[in-house]
C-alpha cells in the first residue's frame, strides 16, 4: 500500500539496517501511512506506545529524544507539522516579553527622549504589556489596538508609539522576522476613524459555540459572549475574581482606558461552570502542574514561571489553543470574525433590547469610576441588584 517491500518497512520500524546504519523514513512514506491510519495508531506502530496511556512526562521524554536524535527529530517534526500545523504556526509568531526587555526599553527611551516624553511612553507601554499578558502576537496586537481605537482614538495613538519602538528596538535584534510581523500587524491610528465590527447575531454565536470542541475554549467563548468583556480581561481572570454564588465577576480595574469594576453571570451559566467546567479545569491543572514544575527545573530559561499564579487562573490554558479552537469552530460554521467583535455584539444586543446606553457602558466597563459615582449620588440611582436584574433579563445567553 505504501510502495515498499516488507523488508524495507521492517528496516524503517527498527530504525537501522543490518549494518547498524540509521535509516531515514522518507516524507512521502510518512504521508501515505498517515493517510491510511489514525495518528495514534501510527505512533503505536513506530514507537510501540499506546497514546491512550500517555502522560506529560512522556511528552518531555519525546522532546528530549528529538533534541538528541536527528532521525527521530525529523519524524517528530513531520508528524507535528501534519497534525498540529495551525497550532505550531500560531505559537511560532509569539514573543514573550521579559523583565530585562522592559528595563532595556526604559533605559533606551530615557536616553533618547525628554523626561516627560519618556515617562509617558513607559507608562503607556507598561499598561499595554499588562493588558496583553506580556505575550505579543500579530493577532493579539491587532485586536488590542482595534479595541483601544474603538473606545479612545487618542489613547490608541499614544499606545501605538511606544509599542512600535519596543518592537523595533527590543524585538527586532532578537527575531527580525517576528518583529516585522508584529510591527506591521497594526497601524498608528489617525484622525477619528473607528473600526466597524461585522454584524453578529445570537444564533450565529450559538452555532459557533456548539462547534467548539476544546472544553476550555468552549467555556471562554461562552463567558465572552454573555458578558461582552474585553478578551484580555477574561484571559487574565483568576478564580478569586469569580463569585459563582452571587454570579458576579469582580474585575477591579481603574486606569485611563479600563474602567470595569464588575460584571455578571447568568444563573444557568454559573451552574454549568460549577458542575462541569471547574471539574474539567481542576483535572487539567492536577494533570500538568507536576510536569510544569519539572520543566521549570530542567530549563533555566523558564525560571520566571510562577506555577501558583498559573494554578489561580480561571483559564489556565494556552491562549493560542483557545483562539485556535474557536477559529476552527468558526471554520466549520463558515464564518470568520475577531474575538473582539463579540464585545460589540453584546452592546448591540442590549441596545436592541431597549437597554440604556449608560447601563451598557457600565456593564461593559466603559463608564469612568468617578462619573459612575456622580451619577449614583446625584442623577442616576441604581443598585448593584437592579443592575444585575437588567443583565439577567436582557443580556444574551448561549444556552
From TrEMBL:
**A Gene Ontology BP annotation from the UniProt entry:** DNA recombination
Q: Is Disulfide bond included in the keywords of this UniProt record?
A: no
What sequence ranges are listed for the domain Tyr recombinase?
Answer: 195-392
Lineage top rank: taxon? Archaea
Q: Name one GO molecular function term.
A: DNA binding
Q: What keywords sit in the KW lines?
A: DNA integration, DNA recombination, DNA-binding
- InterPro entries reported for this sequence: DNA_brk_join_enz, Integrase-like_cat_sf, Integrase_catalytic, Tyrosine_recombinase_XerCD
Q: Specify the protein name.
A: Site-specific integrase
Amino acid at each position: 500500500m505504501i510502495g515498499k517491500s516488507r523488508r524495507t518497512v521492517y528496516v524503517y520500524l527498527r530504525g537501522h539496517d543490518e549494518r547498524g546504519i540509521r535509516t531515514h523514513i522518507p516524507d512521502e512514506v510518512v504521508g501515505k501511512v498517515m493517510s491510511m491510519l489514525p495518528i495514534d495508531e501510527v505512533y503505536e506502530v513506530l514507537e510501540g506506545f499506546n497514546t491512550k496511556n500517555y502522560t506529560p512526562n512522556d511528552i518531555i521524554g519525546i522532546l528530549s529524544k528529538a533534541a538528541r536524535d536527528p532521525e527521530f527529530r525529523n519524524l517528530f517534526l513531520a508528524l507535528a507539522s501534519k497534525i498540529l500545523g495551525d497550532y505550531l504556526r500560531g505559537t511560532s509568531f509569539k514573543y514573550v516579553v521579559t523583565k530585562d526587555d522592559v528595563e532595556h526599553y526604559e533605559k533606551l527611551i530615557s536616553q533618547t527622549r525628554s523626561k516627560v516624553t519618556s515617562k509617558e511612553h513607559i507608562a503607556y507601554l507598561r499598561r499595554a504589556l499588562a493588558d496583553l499578558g506580556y505575550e505579543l502576537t500579530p493577532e493579539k496586537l491587532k485586536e488590542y489596538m482595534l479595541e483601544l481605537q474603538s473606545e479612545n482614538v487618542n489613547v490608541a495613538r499614544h499606545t501605538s508609539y511606544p509599542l512600535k519602538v519596543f518592537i523595533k528596538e527590543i524585538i527586532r535584534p532578537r527575531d527580525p522576522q517576528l518583529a516585522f510581523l508584529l510591527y506591521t500587524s497594526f497601524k498608528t491610528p489617525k484622525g477619528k476613524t473607528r473600526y466597524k465590527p461585522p454584524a453578529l447575531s445570537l444564533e450565529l454565536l450559538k452555532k459557533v459555540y456548539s462547534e467548539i470542541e476544546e472544553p476550555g475554549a468552549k467555556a471562554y467563548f461562552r463567558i465572552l459572549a454573555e458578558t461582552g468583556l474585553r478578551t484580555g480581561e477574561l484571559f487574565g481572570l483568576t478564580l478569586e475574581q469569580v463569585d459563582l454564588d452571587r454570579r458576579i465577576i469582580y474585575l477591579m480595574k481603574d486606569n485611563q482606558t479600563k474602567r470595569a469594576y464588575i460584571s455578571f453571570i447568568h444563573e444557568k451559566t454559573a451552574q454549568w461552570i460549577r458542575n462541569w467546567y471547574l471539574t474539567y479545569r481542576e483535572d487539567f491543572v492536577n494533570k500538568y502542574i507536576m510536569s510544569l514544575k519539572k520543566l521549570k527545573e530542567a530549563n533555566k530559561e523558564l525560571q520566571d514561571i510562577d506555577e501558583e499564579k498559573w494554578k489561580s487562573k480561571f483559564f489556565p490554558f494556552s491562549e493560542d489553543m483557545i483562539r485556535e479552537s474557536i477559529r476552527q469552530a468558526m471554520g466549520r460554521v463558515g464564518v470568520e470574525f475577531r474575538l473582539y467583535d463579540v464585545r460589540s455584539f453584546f452592546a448591540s444586543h442590549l441596545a436592541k433590547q431597549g437597554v440604556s446606553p449608560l447601563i451598557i457602558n457600565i456593564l461593559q466597563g466603559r463608564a469612568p469610576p468617578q462619573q459612575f459615582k456622580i451619577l449614583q449620588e446625584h442623577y442616576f440611582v441604581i443598585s448593584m441588584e437592579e443592575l444585575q436584574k437588567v443583565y439577567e433579563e436582557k443580556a444574551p445567553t448561549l444556552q
